[in-house]
Amino acid sequence: MKPKVAFYWCASCGGCEESSVDLGEALLDVAEAIDIVLWPVALDFKKHHIEAMADGEIVAAFINGAVRSSEQEEWVHLLRKKSQVVIAFGSCAQLGGIPGLANFFNRAGVLEAAYRESPSTVNPNGVFPQTVHKDNGFTLTLPVLHDTVRTLDQVIDVDYYIPGCPPTPQLLADAVQALLSGKLPPKGAVLAPDHALCKDCPRRDTKPEKPMISEFKRPHEVVIDQTQCLLNQGLLCLGPATRSGCGALCIEGNMPCTGCFGPTSRVRDYGAKALSAIASMADSNDDAEIAAILSKIPDPAGTFYRYSLPASALQRKKL
Amino acid sequence: MSEAKFEPRIVAFFCNWCTYLAADLAGISRMKYPPNARVIRVMCSGRIDPQFIVKAFANGADGVLIGGCHPGDCHYQEGNYKCLRRFTLLKRVIQEMGIEDERLRLEWISAAEGDRLRTVMFDMVEKVRALGPLNWKPAEEKAPVAEEVTA
Amino acid sequence: MRESNGAVRVGVYVCHCGSNIGAIVDCKAVAEYAAGLLHVAVARDYKYMCSDPGQELIQKDIEEHKLNRIVVASCSPHLHENTFRVATAKAGLNPYYLTMVNIREHDSWVHTDRAAATEKAKDLVRGAVRRVVLQRPLEKGRVPIDPKVLVVGGGIAGIHAALTLANAGKKVYLVEREPTIGGHMAMFDKTFPTLDCAACILTPKMSTVKNHPNITLWTYSEVESVSGYVGNYDVKVRRRTRYINEDLCSGCQECIAACVFKEPKFPDEFNQRLGKRKPIYLPFPQAVPQTPVIDPETCIEFKTGKCKKTCLEACADRHAIDFKLTDTVEEIRVGTIIVCTGFQAYDARRSPQFGYGIYPNVYTSLEIERLVNAAGPTAGEVVLRDGKTVPRSIGIIHCVGSRDENANRWCSRVCCMYSLKLAHLLKEHTDAEIFNFYIDMRTPGKSFEEFYQRLLNEGVHFIRGKVAEVTDWAADPSEEGKLVLRVEDTLLGVVRRIPVDMVVLSVGLEPHADAQDVRRMFNMTCSNEGFFLERHPKLAPVNTFTDGVFLAGCCQGPKDIPDTVAQAGAAAAEAMALIDAGYVEQEPNVAYVIEEDCSGCKTCIPMCPYSAITFREQDKKAEVNAVLCKGCGTCVAACPSGSIQQRLFEDDELFEELEGVLIHA
Questions:
Q1: Top-confidence residue, B3 or A43
Q2: Under an 8 A CB cutoff, do C640 and A276 touch?
Q3: Which of A234, C133, C210, C560 has the largest count of CB atoms under 10 Å?
Q4: pLDDT at residue B148, as a whole number
Q5: Exposed, middle or buried, B83 (CB in 10 Å: 0-12/13-18/19+)?
Q6: What is the pLDDT of residues C549-575, one digit of tens each?
Q7: What is the pLDDT of residues A68-122, one digit of tens each?
């Protein structure tokens, strides 16, 4: 019998699903080797199908997306129960990801922005989503949106992590291969190399011996040299702080690394660590000058915790 | 813990060569200051990783105090400037996270400034006490029962 | 993250330090609390942990209870960390399995609330226990000591330190900023309380320095930069040019006689500007070295280029004088450094109420030293600024610039005694009526009080009171032409006006104006007043916080000549202890790269002020040179992938300590 595998998505953009599809023809091989029992984006399985399964019947569940609603929470608990191995797939599941930036706000703030304040919203009656609605003797319910976005492992026990926004198809293929062959690393491992991106950066040899920055620049402000180390051009590239495994795709696209692969195993708080490294490069010893150099980094919390706010030590903004 | 009896918890990261010694000097001189700080000794303020600071807040510190050598006086020449660079940027992050400015403080206190250490301790404890507990909530949030969400 | 290590057995020792800790911290409760912590096998409290029985207690427990981690909660690690490391090592345990908790200086001595102080002690102990579990065995590194010594400053401290070392066979570089060694002592006439002639006891030592085969003397020179570390300091010394080649000069001084200025015309610095010198001069007759200096500020050749250069002619075929000479920079390697840069006298102009710089007949004590000196500007004749009038009455004001909230707060320690000495000398030279105005008479030294008694018997007047002002305003005809000292005589309880011919200001001692630059150069610390800070006021009075750099003399604080000499000897002995050991042990708290994890991002490289981190091209990884690393850990905090760690201050250890101190009890 082929091993049963589930794919599920929580708070995510769908990019992780795209990445799975990007396996291309290899997807067919994967589909050949496993029995997909759940994949909302592609196949029509229902919750009761999973509920009907025995505990541990699913060999592996790949869950992408952060957890920010009651429905997602129910689903991941269910999948945890039914699966031998749970893999947090992608930045959102691993670290909170882009949806995790909602932790700078709370539920009320998020709803306010989405249903009233945003310029594209047309809502003259000020209708807001209700969790319970009674009409004509019928009761309708909607999932509850949480105040705080959480990573998958803040909700359920997670066995492995595949980083990336999205993970590369190759990482998924490797993970499935490892699953099928039973050659899995110790529990808790991130299924990607444990060194920073600089090591695999095509521009590494252009980095100066002593990287220091006297002026930070944003990509839209400069014509970016396609061969030079981006930090050396004053661009805030988080490659030194970010786990490798992406194939330096952004660098290949002449854009700085924004850190979606998260930290190496030796770093506890990605944002604080990346901040430490970048701030250390500010080339001055003078209070005012240091502040001036660093002022060119807008929204440092959002910049350094772009993908990892829910996984950070502080997890969210205090409101 | 009632508000009236709130005693702030302060974690202090002190450089071995200046502020830690200033605290030693305050002791030798029998100066008195409030007992709220827990000092963690590092060899240089440059060793202080911003991770330590966010972790301290997350783990229940109401305030974090960093003590290093005066500019130009670092025992390791320039470690305090590295500390200053990180602090400058971290301070903005901490603000964005909704943590009041006075909860995170960097002070240059030399080995001779026991008196200044005492003053800073008093001042910080009072300011953080006035702000009240930070009470950083760790991760687990129970899903709220279905409730009306209206604006 | 943390390995659960079943084999870890921690012993916790809480010291009462007599009642120093025990009176405020409930040591028993702390020990009982510690006994309940994870991994703690034994926890005890004891009267004095640092005593032999206290140390033996730890050693016995290590054996009996198979302890492999030790936490001692007592005083500052700066005081006893080494004691307990040695004790731990003696019991066969690696000394870096020890952590100290400071519950004295940081707790019992600064807090009054017993409960809160005890809670604090528990928190700190909990942090230490969690930290020590992760600590690893470490070995000290060894660095060889270069046996050469640099002595900075050629006053009596530097002279004595240099001679002590040189006599023991050590090679010494003695660097002095002025054109001659001798410092302030060379300016003094007599020394208190024995009244032996300062020059008579100093100048033989000065010439011994010059002729000592083990001493390289560089005067008119300044240390420009210092780099390196204990045992291996690289020092650059700028040797300012005298425009006279020291090696060619015979010291005949005929050039001075031949100068186009027939008479000395310019203020003579050595004589406190009371006398005059020529543009080419020797600071004083016994100056060492006996090589004159040309002052380009006053020399006509430098100012106009049109001098007849009679000095050159006088030097004839020696060719020692060369106007084209320039500064040279010497680069030397030494193992240890003794800093004896001395003091500067308080500038009496900063206390205008005493009239210095306003009334010509107000003098500073240093001026009087020169005035009473037989080799001074008046050949020992004490006369007023008019050059002829012998003063009939003299007022000596103590504590000028000292013990004064508006000037320096400290007692300069030597002024009472030198004021007595000057009173005696002035009396001897002029037979004037002499008044000493003092706040308190401080004579704590061998034969000091007796000297004071002697002065009382000699008929010198002593008035207890702080002088309010010195004025030339005469209240009645008897005060005409006099300087009047207004003072409250606190023993009589009346305000007095005392007219005198001459006023002497006993100026205090203060750090040199450039002490901060010197401090930075040698990586020292200053105390609040600006004097260089010793490592420990009692137990390491000549050490600094930088290994291999020692202090002696007034740069560390005001002191008299015997204390200066004693301190210089102690500093020399400390340097010798290092030299004769041949090597110095290096704390193992250095940074290291986890090589397989390093991405070669180079973030760490500019962090290191010692260039201890290099980028290894062959495998494109960072590498720490453990000998150059001083263990600050700045690179560790910067490493964006957590691939550099610092021994003894590992991330894991610090996070554990942090979590430990924060868990609510």
A1: A43
A2: yes
A3: C133
A4: 42
A5: buried
A6: 999 999 999 999 999 999 999 999 999
A7: 999 999 999 999 999 999 999 999 999 999 999 999 999 999 999 999 999 999 9
- Which of B36, B38, B73, B117 should be substituted to probe chain C, the one whose Cβ sees the most C Cβ atoms within 10 Å? B38
Structure tokens at C621: 């990884």
- In chain A, what are the domains? 4-98+148-181 (3.40.50.700), 108-146 (no CATH), 197-304 (no CATH)
Q: What CATH class is the domain C10-138? A: alpha beta
Task: Tell if the CB–CB gap between A280 and C638 is shorter than 8 Å.
Answer: yes
B150 contacts A285? CB cut-off 8 A: no
Name the residue ranges covered by the structural domains of chain C.
10-138, 141-240+327-343+511-586, 254-318, 345-510, 591-647
Q: Tokens at residue C325, please?
A: 């000479």
Per residue in B7-26, pLDDT (tens digit) is: 999 999 999 999 999 999 99
Q: C10-138 and C345-510 share one CATH topology?
A: no
- Please tell me the class of the C141-240+327-343+511-586 domain: alpha beta
Which residue range(s) make up the domain with B16?
A: 10-131
Q: Quick one: pLDDT at residue C6?
A: 53
Q: What are the backbone dihedrals phi and psi of residue C235, each rounded to the nearest 5 degrees, phi first?
A: -125, 135
The model's confidence at residue B143, banded by pLDDT at 50, 70 and 90, is: very low
Mark which residues 77-106 of A lie under 8 Å from B by CB: 104
Are C196 and C421 within 8 A, CB to CB?
no
Residues C14 and C103: beta-carbon distance below 8 Å = yes
Q: Coil, strand, or helix at residue C222?
A: strand
How large a percentage of chain C has pLDDT more than 70?
99
pLDDT range class, residue B151, cuts 50, 70, 90 = very low
Whether the predicted pLDDT of C481 surpasses 50: yes
Q: The tokens 């960093």 sit on which residue?
A: B66
For residue B71, give how far its alpha carbon lies from the nearest alpha carbon of chain A (Å): 8
Inform me whether the pLDDT recorded for C215 exceeds 60: yes
- Residue B24, domain member (yes or no): yes
Q: Quick one: pLDDT at residue C1?
A: 34
Chain A touched by B141 (CB under 8 Å): yes
- ipTM exceeding 0.90, yes/no: yes
Distance from the A51 Cα atom to the nearest Cα atom in chain B, whole angstroms: 21
Contact B6, B97 (CB under 8 A): no
How many residues in total does chain C contain?
665
pLDDT, residue B145, reads: 41
Min Cα–Cα distance to chain C from A234, Å: 14
Q: Do C661 and B44 touch (CB under 8 A)?
A: no
pLDDT of residue C228: 87
For residue B136, being part of any structural domain is answered with no
> Tokens 């004097």 belong to which residue?
C531
Helix residue ranges per DSSP H, C91-178: 114-134, 156-167
* CATH architecture classification, C591-647: 2-Layer Sandwich (3.30)
Considering the segment(s) C345-510 as one domain, its CATH architecture is 3-Layer(bba) Sandwich (3.50)
| Interchain CB distance below 8 Å, B90 and A279 | yes
CA–CA separation, B122 vs B107, rounded Å? 13
Cβ within 8 Å, pair B136-A275: no
Asked if C655's CB is within 8 angstroms of A277's CB, the reply is no
Supply the DSSP symbol for C359: B
Whole-number average pLDDT of chain C: 95
The shortest CB-CB distance from B55 to any of A116, A147, A313 is to A313
Please check whether residue B144 lies inside any domain of the structure.
Answer: no
Residue B4: pLDDT band (50, 70, 90) is: low
